[in-house]
Write a sequence for this structure.
């Protein structure tokens, strides 16, 4: 989803390369749960995986 299009109930407004500050309560955005579920990519989870050596240090893949 480019720029989160379709993931928010009210679309984000971009101006001069920045997101306009939402005026709704809280964080100002309301996510579309059904759209998020449909857009979920299981392979994305792999990007957050870390490998550890026996001593607990991080390692490259």
């Amino acid at each position: 989803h480019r720029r989160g299009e379709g993931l928010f109930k009210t679309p984000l407004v971009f101006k001069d390369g920045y997101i306009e500050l939402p005026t709704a309560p809280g964080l100002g955005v309301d996510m579309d749960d059904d759209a998020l579920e449909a857009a979920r990519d299981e392979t994305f989870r792999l990007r957050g995986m870390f490998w550890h050596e026996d001593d607990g240090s991080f390692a490259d893949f």
In short: The longest helix spans residues 33-39. The two ends are 27 Å apart (CA to CA). The mean pLDDT is 79.
